[in-house]
Specification:
DNA-binding, Arc Repressor Mutant, subunit A, disordered C terminus, mainly alpha, 12 helices, 43% helix
DNA sequence: AACATTTGCAACCGCGCTTGA
DNA sequence: TTCAAGCGCGGTTGCAAATGT
């Protein structure tokens, strides 16, 4: 038995919103607010729409102070830098860009920025090219046992991945990132010896390409970009580490702190050192 | 000009989380 | 403490427009 539907699917309109529907919703919310109940809202407004659809329309399109134009270079920089750090946590990224919605940013990343920055990397076809941050695969019978802990395989991944699927890759989750941040200047990130990254170890931090940041990449010429990515490619090939983890490990502390500290202020139990433990996660 | 393919974006879906009774 | 309802998020899909052949 599945989850109960949030609305009567038979009697709700789907698809693009008409100007009349927009006007009704906008006018109602401006006068009365949402009432804290999106599910009940369509009936009050007189719309044959699902409450979730109304909420999405309001948040992504109708609410005041939304920016609809092109993204600025500064916004691009913020998106790229945050993506490297926290992955596809679009709502967190959107919180740093006033007037932008998570959906906007997600679409912009998937359609423009990804290509701009990573176009030379292998990719799959259009709708299978979503970025996916995955935790290491666990053995369902034993949560402590990790299967293929550092690989994203092609065969069992319906969404595909942007990294060469046969190469090892590990992308930290936002929870893991939170454990790393903020960290005092010069505090090393440790990769514990008990769980190597395909045989690599903490010494890699000291030998990873420096400096590296996507902020730098954005303002670089194509030749400079080739050089930057070339450094990563050779490092990547020699170590078997993913580009993401190399980026993470080689990012200057001050950049991480300036970008991420505001997001992580609420997190009081912050560990200043991260290490990749036996379960493949940062501990 | 016609057709195929790609791109960009709005919208939907489903699931985990939060809240309140 | 439990559980159902609602919310919010990230992933995915649909489709029109743009571009290529």
């Amino acid at each position: 038995m599945g989850r109960a539907p949030c609305c009567d699917k038979e009697n709700v309109k789907k698809g693009p919103w008409s100007p009349e529907e927009d006007a009704k919703l906008k006018s109602y919310i401006e006068q009365n607010g949402t009432g804290g109940n999106w599910i009940a809202l369509p009936q009050k407004v007189g719309l044959k729409r699902c409450g979730k659809s109304c909420r999405l329309r309001w948040l992504n399109y109708l609410r005041p102070n939304l920016k609809h134009g092109a993204f600025s270079e500064e916004e691009e920089n913020i998106i790229c830098s945050l993506y490297i750090r926290i992955g596809s946590r679009w709502s967190l990224i959107a919180a740093q860009l006033p007037g932008r919605t998570d959906n906007d940013i997600k679409n912009y990343w998937n359609t423009k920025l990804k290509k701009k920055l990573l176009g030379k990397f292998p990719r799959k076809d259009h709708h299978q090219n979503q970025y996916t941050c995955r935790a290491p695969k666990q053995d369902p019978k034993n949560p402590h046992k990790i299967l293929n802990s550092l690989e994203i395989s092609n065969g069992d991944s319906p969404a595909g991945c942007w990294i060469e699927p046969t190469l090892p890759a590990y992308i930290p989750s936002s929870t893991e990132i939170k454990r790393l941040l903020p960290k005092p200047e010069g505090t090393p990130l440790l990769i514990s010896p008990d769980h190597s990254l395909n045989g690599t170890n903490s010494h890699l931090l000291a030998t990873s390409p420096q400096p590296s940041s996507f902020t730098n990449c954005l303002s670089s010429s194509s030749a400079e970009l080739d050089d930057i990515f070339g450094q990563f490619d050779s490092f990547y090939e020699s170590t078997g580490m993913s580009r993401e983890i190399i980026e993470l490990l080689s990012m200057p502390d001050q950049v991480i702190n300036s970008l991420m500290y505001p997001l992580m202020e609420a997190s009081t139990a912050v560990s200043y050192q991260g290490s990749i433990g036996v379960n493949g996660g940062l501990v």
